[in-house]
């Protein structure tokens, strides 16, 4: 779970945004947990102390990305490095600012997990989240990830290997860039 950004366009860290009575970071962790993901790693950065103080993340492993200002890639690298110390064979990547991603979408993508897997959800003709990265690909993903381009460059370079899973019927990966108008 990547939740380190400062939410510059949003007006503050999205991990601390409340929606339907819960913090977005809590919602994302609950989605991963309900989908059967374990371990769950939450990468924090901006306002990490406030997120820790306010969010109930249960047994999720919380790690800090000290380089969060450099972009999402550093958070992805931090999360993958943390998982490298576990026996996880794949990582499902979720973003804190996509609250419409459902446990069903995560289950669909995770159902094809393996150490050599590259899987992405699709919404019509567009690839989106969640994304599953098999352990065999973590080093390559980390090498190509820069700034706010997480795994995209790696997935593009290996487009023929990427398995797509239709999720438009059960999920919405629209990201929250700016606060909703009231």
Automatic annotation (TrEMBL):
<dbReference type="InterPro" id="IPR029044">
    <property type="entry name" value="Nucleotide-diphossugar_trans"/>
</dbReference>
<dbReference type="InterPro" id="IPR025877">
    <property type="entry name" value="MobA-like_NTP_Trfase"/>
</dbReference>
<dbReference type="Pfam" id="PF12804">
    <property type="entry name" value="NTP_transf_3"/>
</dbReference>
<protein>
    <submittedName>
        <fullName>Nucleotidyltransferase family protein</fullName>
    </submittedName>
</protein>
<feature type="domain" description="MobA-like NTP transferase">
    <location>
        <begin position="2"/>
        <end position="158"/>
    </location>
</feature>
